[in-house]
Amino acid sequence: MLTKAIGQSHAKAILMGEHSVVYGEPAIAIPLLNINMIVSIIIRHDHQQIIKSRYYNGSLSDLAGAYEGVRQLIVFLLEQFNATDLGFELTFNSQIPQERGMGSSAATSIAVIRAFYALFEEPLDRKTLLKMANIEESITHGSPSGIDTATSSSEDPIFFIKNKEVTPFKIDVPGYLVISDTGIMGQTGLAVSAVRRLFDEEPSKTRRLISDLGEAATSAKTALQTGDLVALGQLMTKAHAHLRTLGVSHPHLETLVKTAIEKNALGAKLTGSGIGGSIIALAKDLTDAQRIADALSAVGAQEYWISPLASQMNTEHLN
């Protein structure tokens, strides 16, 4: 066993398939490698188990509330390594905003698992990683789709169908994504309930919207692989209109989407659960991306990132 170790992960953006993925339709998620989460662990000899983060500083045993999933994951890992009395200091350094649809909790679980496996010098395969990450995600989100953990642990985009397919795929396409935060926490539970309620009230209409979102995700994968940015942008904007009809948009999201389109975005949509959170906008080049980002800031966006589609390693974080 080492005396210290780190684990890393990153944010994600849902490109296509929000909400429809819950009903068996495909979704696409994009990893944002430079919006990262780093978890470091250092052994203590006094047997204290200390957590340090932006939101909580104290003992592992007192970690609760929104972080209960993280606490249970750490306890599970300690039990697995027969180290329940191990003293340590676990520090979280995250660039990922919480409740913005960017996979903060999934990234946390991935980084924690990687840190502990590195500490104990044990090999970690992807199947085991995703299975363990589901411990935290199930507690935090109830019935997670799995797309967040799949993408927060991957360097490639993910084509995802719940309980059927998790397929990374390569893309080589020009263009940039602008990810923009409204500053309003997303409301996952409320958004999921809104879609379910619409299903109860207008089943035929809702089923058609869900199906159309699934078809758009499949078409978006083709557009990414063939480099058709115009088609991809049109699919994104169409998907946002469907999501708005499903009742998961928000006035601030609408303002950002409208502004992005007015500033020559090829397409724009909410990303994540909605009713707050973030949008993504597609730009043909870096000049347009910066123009769009500046305009979004001017109308109230709290933070933004510019990310090249073809090489997420070059993500730029800007305020």
UniProtKB/TrEMBL annotation:
Gene3D superfamilies: 3.30.230.10, GHMP kinase, C-terminal domain (3.30.70.890). Keywords: ATP-binding, Cytoplasm, Kinase, Lipid biosynthesis, Lipid metabolism, Magnesium, Nucleotide-binding, Transferase. Pathway: Isoprenoid biosynthesis; isopentenyl diphosphate biosynthesis via mevalonate pathway; isopentenyl diphosphate from (R)-mevalonate: step 1/3. Pfam families: GHMP_kinases_C, GHMP_kinases_N. It comes from the Bacteria. Residues 73-152 form the GHMP kinase N-terminal domain. Its EC number is 2.7.1.6. InterPro entries: GHMP_kinase_C_dom (IPR013750), GHMP_kinase_C_sf (IPR036554), GHMP_kinase_N_dom (IPR006204), Mev_gal_kin (IPR006205), Ribosomal_Su5_D2-typ_SF (IPR020568), Ribsml_uS5_D2-typ_fold_subgr (IPR014721). One of its GO terms (molecular function) is galactokinase activity. Residues 221-301 form the GHMP kinase C-terminal domain. PANTHER family: MEVALONATE KINASE. This is Galactokinase. The gene is galK_3.
